[in-house]
Amino acid sequence: MEKAQIVYNVLMGVGQSGPLTLIVALVQFTAPHAYLSTATGLAFSARALGGAFGSAVVGAIINGKLSRSYAAEVGSAAVAAGLPQDAVAPLLAALASGSGSREALSAVAGATSRAIDAALSASRDVYAAAYRLGWSSIIPFVVLAWSGIWFTRGVKNLMTDVVEASIERRPESHRSSSR
Predict the structure, then answer these.
(1) pLDDT digits (tens, 9 = 90+) for 111-170
(2) Domain that holds residue 64
(3) Measured between alpha carbons, how far is 106 from 112 in angstroms, rounded to an integer?
(4) For residues 148 and 26, what is the distance between their CA atoms, to the nearest angstrom?
(5) What CA–CA distance (Å, rounded) separates 176 from 84?
(6) CB of 28 within 8 A of CB of 39?
(7) Whose CB among 75, 77, 109, 156 lies 3.0–4.6 Å from 118's, allowing a Cys bridge?
(8) Total domains in the fold of the chain
(9) Residue 91 to residue 75: CA distance in whole angstroms
């Protein structure tokens, strides 16, 4: 999956950076000037909330996949490579401890080099599958966001040298007295 991983990262970058960057510009060009600061603040808030919810959903998908398949697949791979069935729980506990070192795994009764290699390989595969599923769930949102951007009307006519900020407007009586 080396080449596919590059595609996932490019897709994620284009899918997230484009819409998330352009939403603020879109809001600023389309909001009435009287509400520009409020609209910009709401756009940034909506973007942050969307990112927080999106991260939570992707995390839930990844963790759900891991909780459903990690123990079964890693245990099966280790048993198929010669680990005794009653040593699966201690092996999984050693992997879950975070050390994951060969020394910690070798301390599990009945763990052979072949069983440890199989367990580590299965562990990597399960994690990779979980992250693939999580990141793949973003693809429909990328398509929706880019479709929305594609159909947004242009703002080229708004790109002028005129600044319509209320701070530049002076009352008529002040203008005539300053001449």
Answers:
(1) 899 999 999 999 999 999 999 899 888 888 778 777 877 777 776 776 677 766 656 556
(2) 2-177
(3) 7
(4) 11
(5) 95
(6) yes
(7) 77
(8) 1
(9) 8
